[in-house]
Structures are given as structure tokens and as C-alpha cells.
Design a protein that fits this description.
There is one protein chain. This protein is mainly alpha-helical and 65 residues long. 82% of the residues lie in helices and 0% in strands. It contains four helices and no strands. It has helices at 5-25, 30-35, 37-56, 59-64. The longest helix has 21 residues, at 5-25. The radius of gyration is 14 Å and the shape is elongated.
């Protein structure tokens, strides 16, 4: 079955959000992350992007990946 263009975009948003979080926070401790409120807010924001995009990926696409 053909992949839905919207699913592809949503999966891309998920990957970009993960890359952003890991690129900025990789190697940091939990204490490092929570001590910086602006950084922590950014993590929360990108986590919300991941959750929202994942919520709307079609069930079939979720099963295939």
C-alpha cells in the first residue's frame, strides 16, 4: 500500500524533533536538563511535536514501521 504523504511528513517531523533534542541534550544529565528552564521548555515542546505527530500517523503506517 502506498505511504500517505501526510504520514511521511509526520514521520519526518518526529525524526527532526528527536534530532533536535539529542543534538542539544546528548550527554547531559537529568540535573543539567532540569536546571535550565529554557532548555527544559524546548525539550517539552519537541516532545509535544513527537506526540502530536505520532498520534496522527495512520495505524497501518505505525504497524509497518
Amino acid at each position: 500500500m502506498r505511504e500517505q504523504p501526510k504520514d511521511r511528513n509526520r514521520l519526518q517531523h518526529i525524526l527532526e524533533a528527536i534530532d533536535t533534542i539529542l543534538g542539544r541534550c546528548g550527554g547531559m544529565t537529568r540535573e543539567d536538563l532540569t536546571a535550565d528552564k529554557v532548555l527544559f521548555g524546548g525539550i517539552v515542546y519537541h516532545t509535544m511535536i513527537i506526540g502530536e505527530a505520532a498520534l496522527f500517523v495512520s495505524l497501518l503506517e505505525s504497524i509497518n514501521h
